[in-house]
Amino acid sequence: MLDFEGLRTGAGIFDVLSRAQTLERQGKRVLHFEIGQPDFCTPECVKDVAKKALDENFTGYVSAQGILELKEAIQDEIEKTRGFCPLLNQILVVPGGNSAIFYMIRAASDNPLKEEVIHPNPGFPTYRAVVHYLNTGNISLPLKEENEFRLNPADVEEKISPKTKVIVLNSPQNPTGSVMKKEEIIRIAELAEENNVYLLSDEIYSKMTYDETFYSCSEHDECKERTVILDGFSKAYSMTGWRLGYVIGPERIIDRMGLLISMTVSCVNAFIQKAGAAALTMKEPQEELKRNMKAFRKRRDAIVDGLNSISGFSCLRPQGAFYVFPNIKDTGKTSKELADKLLEENGVACLPGTVFGDVGEGYLRFSYATSVDNINEAIESIKDSF
Ligand code: PMP
């Protein structure tokens, strides 16, 4: 039996956004830290390529796997960033990375009811929601603050069983911003190999790190045996609304995922794919990304220092993405109580850590995709009420 209530567990983020918007309609000023989307614009040259593709009537159905131009751009991108060139049959263009999580977990599974998926807790809610929906065993792995919220290979080893079908890795991570170390990732890739388990490596924030370098477990098997890389355009190129992403994986899994795409959306929007190829291959988007990351670093430092100056809060300085996950246990409030209070009394919209799993109790998530001025205003307002 499929469990639709399972899917509802993934919807907490949009719940806070809609409450914040209701307050705004009532005339209240709200500072937004809830949604994980860059506040920067899509690079102009990318928009121009999409406009041109429309003008040239590149508006029909295309291959369910993705257009050749984009798949070739992805081949070059993977060669540059992960050190190997995937076959065209190992690449699938998807309508946003989020959809690929459902497609991949479904495609990896032969008998969902008898299998288990291991995923991080706190973690991006779609993992848990999709696994729950498919009635597959939901094995969540606590990320510990003492370990800077990095997944610990020894904990993975403890949870692997003959039922394990997929291990989800996400580095840089949502919601904590943690970046795993190369040796930790290698150990998990070895565990996956020893136990014949698929690895879903959600690398959507791969281009968004600060001092730590990003490492991909795909180096281990070049996505030929068990690794499926999920990456996309939403975060690095400020393209959340374009709904475009891609996966690289073993041909068998990519073939199955392609069938799911074909039977649901038929294919990803033709002209959007041209824009995706431009985002990967043109110079300006990479330069904008560099500038944006400089701005994100300043914002990260402002929010981390600010949160640490509030009594009852303590916050690590994350190495990737654009999220912080402060510990608020000393405020004596639950995550939900505090997030509600901050929204209603301070006009600061952030998420209770529990949106990302029960291990998120005692934490809040702030997405710092907003100006340093807004960050400082929010901090001052919270500080005044403690
Ligand atoms: N994975 C993670 C970890 C994310 O945080 C997100 C977006 N918040 C996604 C995947 C999906 O991104 P999109 O569907 O916009 O490509």
Question: What keywords describe this structure?
Answer:
386 residues; alpha/beta; Aspartate Aminotransferase, domain 1; Aspartate Aminotransferase, domain 2; 2 domains; seven-stranded mixed sheet; 12 strands; binds 4'-deoxy-4'-aminopyridoxal-5'-phosphate
Low-pLDDT ranges: none
Q: Helix segment count?
A: 13
* Quaternary status: single chain
CATH architecture of the largest domain: 3-Layer(aba) Sandwich
Q: In angstroms, what is the radius of gyration?
A: 20 Å
Summarize the structure.
With 386 residues, this protein is of the alpha/beta class. The chain has helices at 4-8, 12-25, 44-55, 68-82, 97-108, 125-133, 153-159, 182-194, 251-264, 270-281, 283-308, 335-346, 372-384, and strands at 31-32, 91-94, 116-121, 137-142, 164-170, 198-202, 227-232, 245-248, 323-324, 348-349, 351-352, 364-367. A seven-stranded mixed β-sheet has the order 2-8-7-6-5-3-4, sandwiched between helices. It has a three-stranded antiparallel β-sheet with strand order 9-12-11. A two-stranded parallel ribbon has the order 1-10.
